[in-house]
Amino acid sequence: MTNAVEATLVLVKPDGVRRNLTGEVLARIERKGYTVTGLKMVNADRALLEKHYEEHIEKPFFGALCDFMESGPIVAVRVEGNRVVEGFRSLAGETNPTAARPGTIRGDFGRDWGTVAIENIVHGSDSSLSAERELGIWFAE
Ligand code: RTP
Ligand code: MG
């Protein structure tokens, strides 16, 4: 497991794009030694989000999460590197910006507004299987 070159999906969510943090996120990814191998700006619709967040469809925050993710453009990034799935989750920090440690993207930049859907700047795939599935959704031909 120490040598496993893989790809992950990173999303700069609408709050990150609105706050001009796209470059900051990309810089942290590149400084860590990962390689950006795909990049696009997307206006997500509900159908795309239902595929992406299929594990959350029954959750009480799902509607608010979709409203948030549809509130502006998203920057979708394909990132490659050794153990990058785990590595990017570590760069991102915990889901809730209050709990996320300083030095992580969410810890440094995430604002805890107490909204139903947590606004936390970035998404990162949570396993290499999820990454393959999600890259197929966001980077479909
Ligand atoms: P992500 O999928 O975006 O990388 O974040 P994650 O794995 O850390 O968190 P996940 O549990 O997959 O939740 C997906 C996104 O939904 C919003 N959320 N709100 N109010 C809440 O309890 C709540 N829980 C999740 C966040 O935007 C979270 O990143
Ligand atoms: Mg997740």
UniProtKB/TrEMBL annotation:
Cell compartments where the protein resides: Cytoplasm
Sites where the protein binds ATP: 13, 61, 89, 95, 106, 120
Cofactor(s) this protein requires: Mg(2+)
Catalytic residues in the record: 123 (pros-phosphohistidine intermediate)
Catalytic activity from the UniProt record: a ribonucleoside 5'-diphosphate + ATP = a ribonucleoside 5'-triphosphate + ADP; a 2'-deoxyribonucleoside 5'-diphosphate + ATP = a 2'-deoxyribonucleoside 5'-triphosphate + ADP
UniProt keyword annotation of Electron transport present: no
Enzyme Commission code: 2.7.4.6
SUPFAM superfamilies the UniProt entry points to: Nucleoside diphosphate kinase, NDK
Residues in coiled coil: none
CC per GO annotation: cytoplasm
Residue span(s) of domain Nucleoside diphosphate kinase-like: 5-141
Chief subcellular location: cytoplasm
Gene3D superfamilies referenced in this protein's UniProt entry, alphabetically: Nucleoside diphosphate kinase-like domain (3.30.70.141)
Matches recorded under NCBIfam families: PRK00668.1
Quaternary structure annotation from Swiss-Prot or TrEMBL: Homotetramer.
Name of the featured protein: Nucleoside diphosphate kinase
Taxonomic path: Bacteria, Bacillati, Actinomycetota, Actinomycetes, Micrococcales
Gene that specifies this protein: ndk
